[in-house]
Protein backbone atom coordinates (compact mmCIF):
# COMPACT_ATOMS: atom_id res chain seq x y z
CA UNK A 1 0.00 0.00 0.00
CA UNK A 2 1.23 3.50 -0.83
CA UNK A 3 1.42 6.00 2.08
CA UNK A 4 1.84 9.71 1.31
CA UNK A 5 2.12 12.87 3.38
CA UNK A 6 2.74 16.57 2.66
CA UNK A 7 5.53 17.90 4.91
CA UNK A 8 7.37 20.60 2.88
CA UNK A 9 9.78 21.78 5.59
CA UNK A 10 10.78 18.36 6.97
CA UNK A 11 14.31 17.11 6.29
CA UNK A 12 13.28 13.49 6.80
CA UNK A 13 10.02 11.67 7.38
CA UNK A 14 9.42 8.16 8.71
CA UNK A 15 6.30 6.05 8.31
CA UNK A 16 5.33 4.31 11.54
CA UNK A 17 3.20 1.29 10.68
CA UNK A 18 2.37 -1.71 12.89
CA UNK A 19 5.19 -0.82 15.30
CA UNK A 20 7.84 -0.41 12.57
CA UNK A 21 9.52 2.79 11.35
CA UNK A 22 10.17 2.97 7.62
CA UNK A 23 12.03 5.87 5.96
CA UNK A 24 10.00 7.76 3.38
CA UNK A 25 11.30 9.25 0.12
CA UNK A 26 10.57 12.62 -1.43
CA UNK A 27 8.11 12.50 -4.31
CA UNK A 28 10.09 13.75 -7.32
CA UNK A 29 6.96 15.02 -9.07
CA UNK A 30 5.24 16.83 -6.18
CA UNK A 31 7.16 19.28 -4.09
CA UNK A 32 6.87 18.79 -0.33
CA UNK A 33 5.35 15.32 -0.61
CA UNK A 34 6.84 12.13 0.86
CA UNK A 35 5.92 8.55 0.01
CA UNK A 36 6.58 4.96 1.07
CA UNK A 37 5.21 1.50 0.29
CA UNK A 38 4.28 -0.82 3.17
CA UNK A 39 2.14 -3.85 3.76
CA UNK A 40 -1.18 -2.69 5.23
CA UNK A 41 -4.91 -3.21 4.98
CA UNK A 42 -8.22 -2.10 6.40
CA UNK A 43 -7.67 -1.26 10.10
CA UNK A 44 -3.86 -1.07 10.02
CA UNK A 45 -2.57 1.54 12.49
CA UNK A 46 -0.03 4.08 11.24
CA UNK A 47 1.43 7.55 11.68
CA UNK A 48 4.32 9.77 10.63
CA UNK A 49 7.43 11.07 12.41
CA UNK A 50 8.96 14.32 11.18
CA UNK A 51 12.71 14.82 11.71
CA UNK A 52 12.82 12.22 14.47
CA UNK A 53 9.96 13.79 16.42
CA UNK A 54 6.95 12.05 17.98
CA UNK A 55 4.68 9.96 15.81
CA UNK A 56 1.67 11.97 14.69
CA UNK A 57 -1.53 10.83 12.99
CA UNK A 58 -1.86 11.33 9.26
CA UNK A 59 -3.53 14.73 8.57
CA UNK A 60 -5.67 12.82 6.04
CA UNK A 61 -6.42 9.86 8.31
CA UNK A 62 -9.94 8.56 7.67
CA UNK A 63 -10.17 7.07 11.15
CA UNK A 64 -8.64 7.86 14.56
CA UNK A 65 -9.64 4.85 16.73
CA UNK A 66 -8.03 6.31 19.87
CA UNK A 67 -9.03 9.92 19.32
CA UNK A 68 -7.11 12.95 18.00
CA UNK A 69 -3.86 12.06 19.80
CA UNK A 70 -3.63 8.46 18.61
CA UNK A 71 -2.52 6.73 15.46
CA UNK A 72 -4.63 6.71 12.34
CA UNK A 73 -6.17 3.57 10.91
CA UNK A 74 -6.39 2.62 7.25
CA UNK A 75 -9.99 2.69 5.99
CA UNK A 76 -11.08 0.91 2.84
CA UNK A 77 -14.17 2.86 1.68
CA UNK A 78 -15.24 -0.14 -0.40
CA UNK A 79 -15.34 -2.41 2.65
CA UNK A 80 -18.78 -1.15 3.64
CA UNK A 81 -21.62 -2.86 1.75
CA UNK A 82 -24.39 -0.35 1.11
CA UNK A 83 -27.90 -1.69 1.61
CA UNK A 84 -29.86 0.99 -0.20
CA UNK A 85 -29.37 2.33 -3.71
CA UNK A 86 -29.52 6.12 -3.75
CA UNK A 87 -29.99 8.46 -6.70
CA UNK A 88 -29.75 11.56 -4.53
CA UNK A 89 -32.23 14.24 -3.51
CA UNK A 90 -32.24 17.78 -4.92
CA UNK A 91 -31.94 20.79 -2.66
CA UNK A 92 -34.88 22.48 -4.37
CA UNK A 93 -37.97 21.74 -2.31
CA UNK A 94 -35.92 20.70 0.73
CA UNK A 95 -37.09 20.81 4.34
CA UNK A 96 -33.99 20.58 6.55
CA UNK A 97 -33.71 19.13 10.06
CA UNK A 98 -30.61 20.09 12.07
CA UNK A 99 -29.48 17.26 14.34
CA UNK A 100 -26.68 16.86 16.88
CA UNK A 101 -25.68 13.19 17.12
CA UNK A 102 -24.54 13.43 20.75
CA UNK A 103 -27.86 14.74 22.12
CA UNK A 104 -30.48 13.52 19.64
CA UNK A 105 -30.53 10.43 21.87
CA UNK A 106 -29.11 9.71 25.32
CA UNK A 107 -26.80 7.09 23.78
CA UNK A 108 -25.30 9.77 21.55
CA UNK A 109 -24.30 7.52 18.64
CA UNK A 110 -25.01 7.25 14.92
CA UNK A 111 -26.77 3.93 15.42
CA UNK A 112 -29.05 5.27 18.14
CA UNK A 113 -29.88 8.31 15.99
CA UNK A 114 -30.61 6.05 13.01
CA UNK A 115 -33.19 4.28 15.13
CA UNK A 116 -35.24 7.50 15.26
CA UNK A 117 -35.11 8.33 11.53
CA UNK A 118 -38.56 6.87 10.94
CA UNK A 119 -39.94 9.75 13.04
CA UNK A 120 -38.32 12.27 10.73
CA UNK A 121 -39.53 10.53 7.59
CA UNK A 122 -43.06 10.55 9.05
CA UNK A 123 -42.70 14.25 9.87
CA UNK A 124 -42.01 14.95 6.20
CA UNK A 125 -38.55 16.52 6.30
CA UNK A 126 -36.35 15.78 3.30
CA UNK A 127 -32.78 16.17 4.60
CA UNK A 128 -31.11 15.62 7.97
CA UNK A 129 -28.35 18.17 8.60
CA UNK A 130 -25.78 16.71 11.00
CA UNK A 131 -23.72 19.03 13.16
CA UNK A 132 -19.94 18.41 12.82
CA UNK A 133 -18.77 14.83 13.33
CA UNK A 134 -15.00 15.16 12.79
CA UNK A 135 -12.87 14.02 15.78
CA UNK A 136 -12.51 16.36 18.75
CA UNK A 137 -10.96 15.82 22.21
CA UNK A 138 -13.16 14.02 24.71
CA UNK A 139 -16.45 12.29 24.13
CA UNK A 140 -19.14 14.98 24.07
CA UNK A 141 -19.14 18.41 22.48
CA UNK A 142 -20.75 20.51 19.80
CA UNK A 143 -18.16 19.38 17.24
CA UNK A 144 -16.81 22.78 16.24
CA UNK A 145 -13.48 22.03 17.95
CA UNK A 146 -12.65 19.26 15.48
CA UNK A 147 -8.99 18.64 14.65
CA UNK A 148 -9.10 15.98 11.91
CA UNK A 149 -11.16 17.13 8.91
CA UNK A 150 -10.94 13.80 7.07
CA UNK A 151 -12.03 11.51 9.92
CA UNK A 152 -15.18 10.79 11.96
CA UNK A 153 -15.56 11.07 15.75
CA UNK A 154 -15.00 7.59 17.18
CA UNK A 155 -17.44 7.81 20.16
CA UNK A 156 -20.25 8.46 17.68
CA UNK A 157 -19.36 5.28 15.78
CA UNK A 158 -16.48 6.29 13.51
CA UNK A 159 -16.63 6.23 9.71
CA UNK A 160 -18.60 3.00 9.52
CA UNK A 161 -21.13 4.39 11.98
CA UNK A 162 -21.61 7.44 9.76
CA UNK A 163 -22.07 5.19 6.73
CA UNK A 164 -24.67 3.12 8.56
CA UNK A 165 -26.52 6.31 9.50
CA UNK A 166 -26.45 7.67 5.94
CA UNK A 167 -27.50 4.28 4.57
CA UNK A 168 -30.44 4.13 6.99
CA UNK A 169 -31.46 7.70 6.16
CA UNK A 170 -31.45 6.91 2.45
CA UNK A 171 -33.56 3.87 3.18
CA UNK A 172 -36.16 6.25 4.62
CA UNK A 173 -35.88 8.56 1.62
CA UNK A 174 -33.94 11.18 3.60
CA UNK A 175 -30.89 13.01 2.28
CA UNK A 176 -28.00 13.76 4.65
CA UNK A 177 -26.10 17.03 4.93
CA UNK A 178 -22.94 17.35 7.06
CA UNK A 179 -21.79 20.52 8.80
CA UNK A 180 -18.05 20.94 8.11
CA UNK A 181 -15.62 23.43 9.64
CA UNK A 182 -12.93 24.82 7.32
CA UNK A 183 -12.34 28.15 9.06
CA UNK A 184 -10.37 26.85 12.07
CA UNK A 185 -9.36 23.74 14.00
CA UNK A 186 -9.82 23.09 17.70
CA UNK A 187 -7.32 24.29 20.31
CA UNK A 188 -6.35 20.82 21.53
CA UNK A 189 -4.91 17.97 19.45
CA UNK A 190 -4.24 20.01 16.32
CA UNK A 191 -0.94 18.79 14.84
CA UNK A 192 -1.30 20.35 11.37
CA UNK A 193 1.24 23.17 11.98
CA UNK A 194 3.94 20.53 12.50
CA UNK A 195 3.38 19.23 8.97
CA UNK A 196 3.26 22.46 7.00
CA UNK A 197 1.94 26.04 6.64
CA UNK A 198 -1.71 25.17 7.22
CA UNK A 199 -2.18 28.47 9.07
CA UNK A 200 -0.99 32.01 8.45
CA UNK A 201 -0.41 35.07 10.64
CA UNK A 202 -1.32 37.30 7.68
CA UNK A 203 -4.93 37.14 8.82
CA UNK A 204 -6.59 36.59 12.16
CA UNK A 205 -9.94 35.12 13.12
CA UNK A 206 -11.85 34.80 16.42
CA UNK A 207 -9.97 31.50 16.87
CA UNK A 208 -6.47 32.87 16.22
CA UNK A 209 -4.31 32.55 13.11
CA UNK A 210 -6.34 32.01 9.95
CA UNK A 211 -6.34 28.89 7.80
CA UNK A 212 -3.82 29.55 5.03
CA UNK A 213 -5.88 30.09 1.90
CA UNK A 214 -3.75 32.73 0.18
CA UNK A 215 -0.19 32.75 1.60
CA UNK A 216 2.77 30.64 0.37
CA UNK A 217 1.89 26.96 0.49
CA UNK A 218 -1.85 27.67 0.25
CA UNK A 219 -2.31 25.57 -2.92
CA UNK A 220 -1.84 22.41 -0.87
CA UNK A 221 -3.90 23.72 2.05
CA UNK A 222 -6.82 24.49 -0.24
CA UNK A 223 -6.48 21.04 -1.82
CA UNK A 224 -6.48 19.52 1.68
CA UNK A 225 -9.87 21.02 2.60
CA UNK A 226 -11.42 20.54 -0.84
CA UNK A 227 -10.24 16.93 -0.74
CA UNK A 228 -11.79 16.29 2.66
CA UNK A 229 -15.12 17.74 1.47
CA UNK A 230 -15.16 15.57 -1.64
CA UNK A 231 -14.16 12.48 0.35
CA UNK A 232 -17.15 12.91 2.69
CA UNK A 233 -19.54 13.40 -0.23
CA UNK A 234 -18.14 10.46 -2.21
CA UNK A 235 -17.13 7.88 0.39
CA UNK A 236 -20.00 8.45 2.82
CA UNK A 237 -22.62 9.12 0.13
CA UNK A 238 -23.60 12.44 1.65
CA UNK A 239 -25.94 14.71 -0.27
CA UNK A 240 -24.55 18.06 0.77
CA UNK A 241 -22.34 20.03 3.13
CA UNK A 242 -23.11 22.96 5.40
CA UNK A 243 -20.06 25.25 5.55
CA UNK A 244 -19.49 26.84 8.95
CA UNK A 245 -18.89 30.61 9.17
CA UNK A 246 -17.55 31.16 5.67
CA UNK A 247 -17.07 34.86 6.46
CA UNK A 248 -14.03 33.72 8.49
CA UNK A 249 -12.42 32.13 5.42
CA UNK A 250 -10.04 34.99 4.68
CA UNK A 251 -8.87 34.68 1.08
CA UNK A 252 -7.36 37.45 -1.05
CA UNK A 253 -6.63 35.30 -4.10
CA UNK A 254 -8.39 36.00 -7.39
CA UNK A 255 -10.37 32.78 -7.14
CA UNK A 256 -11.92 32.53 -3.69
CA UNK A 257 -11.66 29.18 -1.92
CA UNK A 258 -15.47 28.84 -1.95
CA UNK A 259 -15.59 29.19 -5.73
CA UNK A 260 -12.90 26.51 -6.04
CA UNK A 261 -14.81 24.25 -3.66
CA UNK A 262 -18.17 24.75 -5.36
CA UNK A 263 -16.64 23.99 -8.76
CA UNK A 264 -15.13 20.77 -7.39
CA UNK A 265 -18.46 19.72 -5.83
CA UNK A 266 -20.34 20.40 -9.07
CA UNK A 267 -17.78 18.31 -10.97
CA UNK A 268 -18.16 15.44 -8.48
CA UNK A 269 -21.95 15.59 -8.82
CA UNK A 270 -21.54 15.26 -12.58
CA UNK A 271 -19.14 12.34 -12.12
CA UNK A 272 -21.40 10.50 -9.65
CA UNK A 273 -24.62 11.27 -11.48
CA UNK A 274 -26.48 12.53 -8.42
CA UNK A 275 -27.17 16.01 -7.01
CA UNK A 276 -24.74 17.49 -4.47
CA UNK A 277 -24.93 20.92 -2.86
CA UNK A 278 -23.26 23.36 -0.48
CA UNK A 279 -25.01 25.55 2.12
CA UNK A 280 -22.98 28.43 3.55
CA UNK A 281 -23.29 30.04 6.94
CA UNK A 282 -22.39 33.65 6.26
CA UNK A 283 -23.12 36.86 8.15
CA UNK A 284 -22.01 39.11 5.25
CA UNK A 285 -25.46 39.47 3.67
CA UNK A 286 -23.67 39.31 0.34
CA UNK A 287 -25.64 38.06 -2.71
CA UNK A 288 -22.36 36.99 -4.32
CA UNK A 289 -22.21 33.99 -1.97
CA UNK A 290 -24.95 32.19 -3.89
CA UNK A 291 -24.49 33.89 -7.27
CA UNK A 292 -23.21 31.60 -10.07
CA UNK A 293 -19.47 31.47 -10.63
CA UNK A 294 -20.06 32.57 -14.23
CA UNK A 295 -21.55 35.80 -12.88
CA UNK A 296 -18.51 36.39 -10.61
CA UNK A 297 -20.27 34.79 -7.66
CA UNK A 298 -18.96 32.06 -5.39
CA UNK A 299 -21.35 29.42 -6.70
CA UNK A 300 -22.52 28.16 -3.29
CA UNK A 301 -25.95 26.63 -3.74
CA UNK A 302 -27.64 28.17 -0.69
CA UNK A 303 -26.97 30.07 2.53
CA UNK A 304 -28.42 30.46 6.01
CA UNK A 305 -30.29 33.73 6.54
CA UNK A 306 -29.95 34.89 10.13
CA UNK A 307 -31.92 38.07 9.39
CA UNK A 308 -35.15 36.07 9.10
CA UNK A 309 -34.40 34.48 12.46
CA UNK A 310 -33.59 37.78 14.17
CA UNK A 311 -36.75 39.47 12.90
CA UNK A 312 -38.95 36.52 13.84
CA UNK A 313 -37.30 36.16 17.25
CA UNK A 314 -37.84 39.79 18.19
CA UNK A 315 -41.44 39.66 16.98
CA UNK A 316 -42.10 36.59 19.13
CA UNK A 317 -40.14 37.49 22.27
CA UNK A 318 -39.67 41.26 22.36
CA UNK A 319 -35.95 40.79 23.08
CA UNK A 320 -33.84 43.75 21.96
CA UNK A 321 -30.30 43.13 23.19
CA UNK A 322 -27.17 42.87 21.03
CA UNK A 323 -27.77 42.14 17.37
CA UNK A 324 -31.54 42.09 17.93
CA UNK A 325 -31.62 45.87 18.54
CA UNK A 326 -32.22 47.02 14.96
CA UNK A 327 -34.90 44.37 14.37
CA UNK A 328 -36.69 45.12 17.63
CA UNK A 329 -37.47 48.76 16.77
CA UNK A 330 -40.31 47.58 14.53
CA UNK A 331 -40.17 43.78 14.53
CA UNK A 332 -43.10 43.11 12.17
CA UNK A 333 -41.73 45.62 9.67
CA UNK A 334 -38.36 43.89 9.96
CA UNK A 335 -39.99 40.50 9.46
CA UNK A 336 -41.90 41.77 6.43
CA UNK A 337 -38.70 43.09 4.89
CA UNK A 338 -36.79 39.84 5.38
CA UNK A 339 -39.69 37.83 3.89
CA UNK A 340 -39.79 40.00 0.76
CA UNK A 341 -36.25 41.38 0.37
CA UNK A 342 -34.25 38.46 1.90
CA UNK A 343 -31.86 40.60 3.97
CA UNK A 344 -32.86 43.19 6.58
CA UNK A 345 -29.39 44.73 6.46
CA UNK A 346 -28.88 45.22 2.73
CA UNK A 347 -26.64 48.27 2.84
CA UNK A 348 -28.42 49.79 5.82
CA UNK A 349 -26.81 50.90 9.10
CA UNK A 350 -26.23 48.15 11.66
CA UNK A 351 -26.03 49.50 15.21
CA UNK A 352 -24.51 46.23 16.45
CA UNK A 353 -21.63 46.58 13.98
CA UNK A 354 -21.42 50.37 14.07
CA UNK A 355 -21.47 50.63 10.26
CA UNK A 356 -23.53 49.93 7.16
CA UNK A 357 -23.89 46.24 6.39
CA UNK A 358 -24.88 43.97 3.50
CA UNK A 359 -26.03 44.40 -0.08
CA UNK A 360 -29.49 43.98 -1.65
CA UNK A 361 -30.36 40.88 -3.66
CA UNK A 362 -31.91 41.07 -7.11
CA UNK A 363 -35.49 40.25 -6.09
CA UNK A 364 -36.57 39.43 -9.62
CA UNK A 365 -33.62 37.17 -10.44
CA UNK A 366 -32.63 35.10 -7.41
CA UNK A 367 -34.73 32.12 -6.33
CA UNK A 368 -35.99 32.15 -2.76
CA UNK A 369 -35.03 28.52 -2.08
CA UNK A 370 -31.36 29.57 -2.06
CA UNK A 371 -31.89 31.07 1.40
CA UNK A 372 -32.51 28.94 4.49
CA UNK A 373 -34.96 30.27 7.08
CA UNK A 374 -35.49 29.09 10.66
CA UNK A 375 -36.94 30.06 14.00
CA UNK A 376 -34.22 28.20 15.94
CA UNK A 377 -30.74 26.76 15.32
CA UNK A 378 -28.03 25.24 17.48
CA UNK A 379 -26.32 28.65 17.64
CA UNK A 380 -29.38 30.72 18.44
CA UNK A 381 -30.36 28.38 21.29
CA UNK A 382 -27.01 27.13 22.56
CA UNK A 383 -25.33 30.51 22.65
CA UNK A 384 -27.90 31.82 25.11
CA UNK A 385 -26.72 31.68 28.71
CA UNK A 386 -29.09 28.86 29.70
CA UNK A 387 -29.63 27.33 26.27
CA UNK A 388 -33.37 27.92 26.53
CA UNK A 389 -35.57 27.09 23.56
CA UNK A 390 -38.48 29.25 22.36
CA UNK A 391 -41.05 26.75 23.60
CA UNK A 392 -39.77 27.08 27.16
CA UNK A 393 -41.16 30.61 27.46
CA UNK A 394 -43.60 31.09 24.55
CA UNK A 395 -47.17 29.88 24.31
CA UNK A 396 -47.86 26.92 22.00
CA UNK A 397 -49.81 29.35 19.83
CA UNK A 398 -46.78 31.57 19.21
CA UNK A 399 -44.68 28.48 18.44
CA UNK A 400 -47.36 27.50 15.93
CA UNK A 401 -47.24 30.97 14.36
CA UNK A 402 -43.46 30.72 13.97
CA UNK A 403 -43.80 27.30 12.34
CA UNK A 404 -46.39 28.58 9.86
CA UNK A 405 -44.17 31.45 8.71
CA UNK A 406 -41.07 29.26 8.37
CA UNK A 407 -42.59 26.08 6.92
CA UNK A 408 -45.05 27.80 4.58
CA UNK A 409 -42.83 30.76 3.80
CA UNK A 410 -40.86 31.36 0.61
CA UNK A 411 -37.45 30.16 1.79
CA UNK A 412 -36.02 26.69 2.36
CA UNK A 413 -37.13 25.91 5.93
CA UNK A 414 -35.05 24.30 8.65
CA UNK A 415 -36.03 22.92 12.04
CA UNK A 416 -33.72 22.30 14.99
CA UNK A 417 -34.18 18.85 16.51
CA UNK A 418 -37.18 18.71 18.84
CA UNK A 419 -38.59 21.99 17.58
CA UNK A 420 -41.33 20.07 15.77
CA UNK A 421 -42.97 19.16 19.08
CA UNK A 422 -42.03 22.28 21.02
CA UNK A 423 -39.29 20.57 23.03
CA UNK A 424 -38.63 22.28 26.35
CA UNK A 425 -35.36 20.54 27.12
CA UNK A 426 -32.59 23.15 26.92
CA UNK A 427 -29.76 22.87 24.43
CA UNK A 428 -26.71 24.17 26.26
CA UNK A 429 -23.07 24.70 25.46
CA UNK A 430 -21.05 21.67 26.60
CA UNK A 431 -17.46 20.47 26.19
CA UNK A 432 -15.32 17.56 27.33
CA UNK A 433 -11.78 18.88 27.15
CA UNK A 434 -9.29 16.43 28.75
CA UNK A 435 -6.78 19.28 29.23
CA UNK A 436 -7.67 20.76 32.66
CA UNK A 437 -6.21 24.20 31.82
CA UNK A 438 -8.20 24.44 28.61
CA UNK A 439 -11.32 23.19 30.38
CA UNK A 440 -11.00 25.88 33.05
CA UNK A 441 -10.32 28.57 30.43
CA UNK A 442 -13.50 27.61 28.57
CA UNK A 443 -15.51 27.53 31.79
CA UNK A 444 -14.33 30.96 32.93
CA UNK A 445 -14.58 32.46 29.47
CA UNK A 446 -18.21 31.41 29.22
CA UNK A 447 -18.98 32.96 32.60
CA UNK A 448 -17.19 36.22 31.74
CA UNK A 449 -19.03 36.48 28.45
CA UNK A 450 -22.44 36.33 30.06
CA UNK A 451 -21.45 38.36 33.13
CA UNK A 452 -21.14 41.29 30.72
CA UNK A 453 -24.86 40.85 29.99
CA UNK A 454 -25.88 40.69 33.64
CA UNK A 455 -25.87 36.94 34.26
CA UNK A 456 -24.57 35.60 37.58
CA UNK A 457 -21.78 33.03 37.25
CA UNK A 458 -23.83 30.35 39.02
CA UNK A 459 -26.63 30.77 36.44
CA UNK A 460 -24.34 29.87 33.53
CA UNK A 461 -24.14 26.06 33.10
CA UNK A 462 -20.64 24.59 33.45
CA UNK A 463 -19.71 23.35 29.95
CA UNK A 464 -17.49 20.63 31.44
CA UNK A 465 -20.15 19.19 33.75
CA UNK A 466 -21.55 15.96 32.18
CA UNK A 467 -24.96 17.02 33.47
CA UNK A 468 -24.94 19.93 31.01
CA UNK A 469 -24.84 17.53 28.08
CA UNK A 470 -27.44 15.24 29.66
CA UNK A 471 -29.85 18.14 30.16
CA UNK A 472 -29.46 18.90 26.46
CA UNK A 473 -30.57 15.45 25.29
CA UNK A 474 -34.04 15.27 23.75
CA UNK A 475 -36.83 13.84 25.87
CA UNK A 476 -38.56 11.42 23.50
CA UNK A 477 -41.51 11.07 25.88
CA UNK A 478 -42.51 14.71 25.33
CA UNK A 479 -44.19 14.16 21.91
CA UNK A 480 -46.72 11.84 23.58
CA UNK A 481 -47.94 14.63 25.86
CA UNK A 482 -49.83 17.84 25.20
CA UNK A 483 -49.25 20.46 23.94
CA UNK A 484 -46.31 18.70 22.28
CA UNK A 485 -48.45 16.15 20.41
CA UNK A 486 -50.58 18.92 18.91
CA UNK A 487 -47.51 20.91 17.84
CA UNK A 488 -46.04 17.79 16.23
CA UNK A 489 -49.24 17.26 14.24
CA UNK A 490 -49.20 20.96 13.26
CA UNK A 491 -45.64 20.75 11.93
CA UNK A 492 -46.46 17.58 10.03
CA UNK A 493 -49.50 19.26 8.43
CA UNK A 494 -47.54 22.39 7.47
CA UNK A 495 -44.78 20.38 5.81
CA UNK A 496 -47.37 18.48 3.80
CA UNK A 497 -48.94 21.78 2.72
CA UNK A 498 -45.56 23.11 1.72
CA UNK A 499 -44.93 20.07 -0.42
CA UNK A 500 -48.32 20.49 -2.12
CA UNK A 501 -48.48 24.26 -2.58
CA UNK A 502 -45.07 25.99 -2.37
CA UNK A 503 -43.00 26.23 -5.51
CA UNK A 504 -39.21 26.05 -5.03
CA UNK A 505 -38.96 28.43 -7.99
CA UNK A 506 -40.53 31.30 -6.05
CA UNK A 507 -38.59 34.57 -6.27
CA UNK A 508 -38.62 37.35 -3.66
CA UNK A 509 -40.43 39.60 -6.13
CA UNK A 510 -43.35 37.14 -6.02
CA UNK A 511 -43.72 37.46 -2.23
CA UNK A 512 -46.05 40.03 -0.64
CA UNK A 513 -46.57 40.90 3.02
CA UNK A 514 -49.04 43.14 4.86
CA UNK A 515 -48.86 43.76 8.60
CA UNK A 516 -50.06 45.93 11.46
CA UNK A 517 -47.29 46.68 13.93
CA UNK A 518 -49.63 47.86 16.66
CA UNK A 519 -52.19 45.06 16.38
CA UNK A 520 -49.39 42.53 15.82
CA UNK A 521 -50.74 40.63 12.82
CA UNK A 522 -48.92 39.71 9.63
CA UNK A 523 -50.26 38.39 6.33
CA UNK A 524 -47.89 36.64 3.87
CA UNK A 525 -48.76 35.45 0.38
CA UNK A 526 -46.80 33.85 -2.42
CA UNK A 527 -48.21 31.86 -5.27
CA UNK A 528 -51.69 30.73 -4.27
CA UNK A 529 -50.74 30.26 -0.61
CA UNK A 530 -51.77 32.76 2.08
CA UNK A 531 -50.35 32.61 5.64
CA UNK A 532 -51.67 34.83 8.42
CA UNK A 533 -50.63 35.06 12.06
CA UNK A 534 -51.90 37.00 15.06
CA UNK A 535 -49.06 37.45 17.54
CA UNK A 536 -51.12 39.55 19.93
CA UNK A 537 -51.93 38.02 23.29
CA UNK A 538 -55.38 39.56 23.55
CA UNK A 539 -58.24 40.24 21.16
CA UNK A 540 -59.07 38.89 17.74
CA UNK A 541 -57.42 40.34 14.66
CA UNK A 542 -59.40 41.26 11.57
CA UNK A 543 -57.01 40.86 8.68
CA UNK A 544 -58.04 42.21 5.28
CA UNK A 545 -57.14 39.68 2.60
CA UNK A 546 -56.55 40.38 -1.07
CA UNK A 547 -59.42 38.02 -1.92
CA UNK A 548 -63.07 38.01 -0.83
CA UNK A 549 -63.21 34.28 -0.06
CA UNK A 550 -60.60 31.69 0.81
CA UNK A 551 -60.34 28.02 1.70
CA UNK A 552 -58.79 27.09 5.02
CA UNK A 553 -56.01 24.51 4.62
CA UNK A 554 -54.86 24.49 8.25
CA UNK A 555 -55.31 26.62 11.35
CA UNK A 556 -54.18 26.89 14.95
CA UNK A 557 -56.46 28.55 17.47
CA UNK A 558 -59.53 30.63 16.66
CA UNK A 559 -60.00 31.12 12.93
CA UNK A 560 -62.93 32.37 10.81
CA UNK A 561 -62.27 32.49 7.10
CA UNK A 562 -63.76 35.36 5.09
CA UNK A 563 -67.27 34.84 3.88
CA UNK A 564 -67.47 37.40 1.13
CA UNK A 565 -66.14 40.40 3.09
CA UNK A 566 -62.44 39.58 2.65
CA UNK A 567 -61.77 39.70 6.42
CA UNK A 568 -59.93 36.84 8.12
CA UNK A 569 -60.61 36.74 11.84
CA UNK A 570 -57.85 35.22 13.99
CA UNK A 571 -57.85 34.85 17.75
CA UNK A 572 -54.81 35.62 19.96
CA UNK A 573 -51.69 33.58 19.22
CA UNK A 574 -53.36 31.99 16.20
CA UNK A 575 -52.30 31.12 12.68
CA UNK A 576 -54.00 30.13 9.44
CA UNK A 577 -52.87 28.81 6.09
CA UNK A 578 -55.33 29.52 3.29
CA UNK A 579 -55.69 28.94 -0.41
TrEMBL record:
Which controlled-vocabulary keywords does the entry list?
A: Carbohydrate metabolism, Cytoplasm, Glycosidase, Hydrolase
Top-level EC class, please? hydrolase
Write down the species: Streptomyces taklimakanensis
Stored NCBIfam families: trehalose_TreZ
**Keyword Chaperone included in the entry's annotation:** no
- Highest rank taxon of the organism: Bacteria
UniProt protein name? Malto-oligosyltrehalose trehalohydrolase
Which residues does the record give as substrate binding sites? 242-247, 306-310, 378-383
Give start and end of each Glycosyl hydrolase family 13 catalytic domain: 98-446
Q: Is tRNA-binding set as a keyword in this record?
A: no
Which molecular function term from Gene Ontology is one that the record holds? 4-alpha-D-(1->4)-alpha-D-glucanotrehalose trehalohydrolase activity
